[in-house]
Amino acid sequence: MDRACPGTARSRWEGRVSGNTREYVALKFLFTKSIPGHGDIFEEVSESELQPGDILLFPMDRSNDIISRILFKHAAIYCGDGEVIHFQGAGTPNSSALISSQTTPGLISKQGYTALKNDRGNCQIYRKKGGVDLRAFRSKLKKAMNSEAEYSLYKNNCIHFALSLLGLEKFYSQLVQIQDEGGSSRSGGAANRCPPSRAGQGSSHTA
């Protein structure tokens, strides 16, 4: 596992968040591609090797602010067939709107990989060493697309979501259920929200 030298920006940042496990998880992945309790389990791969379960790190936005482009990343997961799935705060597409401790409505969605790359710019691609269980991964994708969650930059963000799909981090979500005309429930509508600490979990600095 990477270790930052005392006094560096990364060591100060890690020290500041060490008491906040969820924020620490996101920052460790962002800066070292390691996960507390799992160690260094990711390797960088090229776009030509892209496969389902790979994590994509895009610039938060396409601004000319170099610092923002380096420090703030948006995570997505490649699903296969040219599609990605990602989680973001609804109506808050850029870094300046998301640097806040405020909780906002979240949006889990699928999008074309090429379209997302055209919108945000080129990405870095990381793969879990040893690969992923595709059957379990696809099951989690299906569950995620029938879920909703509150977005929080520190507590419940795109990196937590991405890691949850790989079984590496908890994600605070509430399964969406609606009633059809016959009275039986099915996925796809409004739900009663649970507090984050009690909400259902997927098996996941940032947007």
TrEMBL record:
Region span, Disordered: 182-207
Protein name: LRAT domain-containing protein
Annotated LRAT domain residues: 64-174
SUPFAM superfamilies, A to Z: Cysteine proteinases
